[in-house]
UniProtKB/TrEMBL annotation:
Pfam families: DUF7492. This is DUF7492 domain-containing protein. It comes from Penicillium atrosanguineum. Residues 304-316 have a biased composition (Low complexity). Residues 291-316 are annotated as: Disordered. The keyword Signal applies. Keywords: Signal. Residues 20-283 form the DUF7492 domain. Transmembrane segments: none annotated. Residues 1-22 form the signal peptide.
Length: 362
């Protein structure tokens, strides 16, 4: 009790102050047990730098494409690398080991929302789902891998691009639950709806996650590489600084030590434990959407309102929902915060509802 309140006091402040400048990366990987609870020892990205380590700052882990200072922010160049320079090789840093997981295992990739979910009006012209997060998988990563060789090229069935890898998952950056503590109405609503005890890892915040599944065919005794790509574009004609819009992509490159195979997730697909501690629980809709036979299907979720309280999902409708959203963002006429709010209301996700997706809440 006493410890909790100390931790809370200690952590609330820094996260509150930092949200405006911080961007996101995969901070931790964890295996998810059949009941949806995180299990085992967490793993970390290549070249990870823990927030608690000396010398940490926001740029030690963020990797932006196009990079700051690019001549044309609407362009990703064929030479733009997929992985940050500190994540080019399959190397771990001291204290940040690789995740060990079985082929077919369900894995949560967790990241902080940094206000991008709870304070969406801070960045005009951004997608309502706060961008889309993609996870690509390969047993044949390359040093010097380029973004365009992978992102938008590799496909779920493995026939895309140079066929070295697959698209494993596509989700909304906003997982429907996550928040940082601030006085915005979204954060306050979520603090009430998804309460948890502050802890030394997340502080009082609740991190976002993307739940993916390793292919059942990932060879045991080898490394399997995951590329996390957060695609968070600015639409044209909204922010006067970017009349043509801009691309804004962040990545994290990770490897997993594959040891054996598991069928636990698929066998117990319906055994998600209700009312479990949110600090260590998969997102129910994403978890349920993982493929039953552990094949490399791209899991997807539909567009969700950032103010939505529902986390139900239906994979069938996601393509539709994404298309509706993209159409919408490219036609936003004005620049103001009001425009964003109006937008939030006018994106009737009725069409999505009709196809089985989650509604926009109000
Ligand atoms: C952040 O840390 C990196 C080393 O990881 C260093 O090169 C850089 O100068 C630091 N930036 C700031 C703003 O302190
Ligand atoms: C950036 O590139 C796009 C696509 O090639 C082009 O249409 C646009 O005019 C360029 N913008 C600037 C500012 O050069
Ligand atoms: C879920 O399963 C794991 C591993 O079997 C177990 O440690 C954990 O207590 C279970 N969680 C709940 C909420 O039942
Ligand atoms: C937050 O406020 C905005 C603007 O007033 C509103 O559109 C939105 O529905 C609110 N969200 C929540 C979760 O209260």
């Amino acid at each position: 009790m006493k410890l909790d309140s100390i931790i809370q006091t200690f952590w609330v402040l820094p996260t509150f102050v930092l949200f405006a400048t911080a961007h996101s990366w995969v901070e931790q990987l964890t295996v998810i047990a059949a009941n949806g609870t995180f299990t085992g020892t967490p793993g970390y990205a290549r070249g990870n730098w823990l927030r608690t380590a000396p010398g940490f700052n926001d740029t030690t882990m963020t990797y932006l494409i196009p990079p700051d200072g690019s001549a044309n922010v609407t362009l990703v160049l064929p030479t733009d690398k997929l992985c940050k320079n500190t994540q080019q090789t399959q190397t771990q840093s001291d204290g940040s080991p690789r995740l060990k997981a079985s082929a077919g295992a369900a894995i949560a990739l967790r990241y902080q929302e940094n206000g991008h979910v709870t304070l969406p009006w801070n960045q005009p012209g951004k997608p309502k789902n706060r961008g889309t997060v993609y996870v690509y998988g390969t047993t044949e990563p390359k040093v010097g891998e380029t973004l365009l060789d992978v992102h938008g090229a590799w496909t779920a069935d493995g026939t895309g691009g140079d066929k070295r890898g697959v698209l494993l998952s596509t989700q909304n950056f906003d997982d429907g639950r996550c928040y940082q503590i601030n006085t915005g109405n979204i954060s306050e609503a979520r603090q009430t709806e998804y309460p948890h005890q502050a802890n030394s890892l997340m502080g009082a915040d609740l991190w976002c996650q993307q739940d993916v599944q390793l292919p059942a065919t990932a060879p045991s005794g080898k490394l399997y590489t995951l590329y996390w790509v957060w695609d968070w574009p600015t639409a044209p004609g909204v922010d006067p600084t970017y009349p043509q819009g801009k691309k804004e992509i962040y990545t994290t490159c990770m490897d997993i030590d594959v040891t054996g195979t598991t069928t636990s997730h698929s066998q117990e697909q319906d055994s998600y434990a209700t009312d479990q501690n949110l600090d260590s629980a998969a997102i129910p809709s994403e978890f349920a959407d993982l493929d039953e036979d552990g094949s490399a299907k791209a899991t997807q979720s539909p567009l969700e309102s950032s103010s939505s309280s529902s986390s139900a999902a239906s994979s069938e409708s996601s393509a539709t929902a994404t298309t509706i959203w993209q159409t919408f963002t490219s036609t936003i006429p004005t620049v103001t915060e009001t425009a964003w709010r109006t937008m939030e209301k006018t994106v009737t996700v009725r069409e999505c509802q009709a196809t089985g997706a989650t509604s926009a809440g109000q």
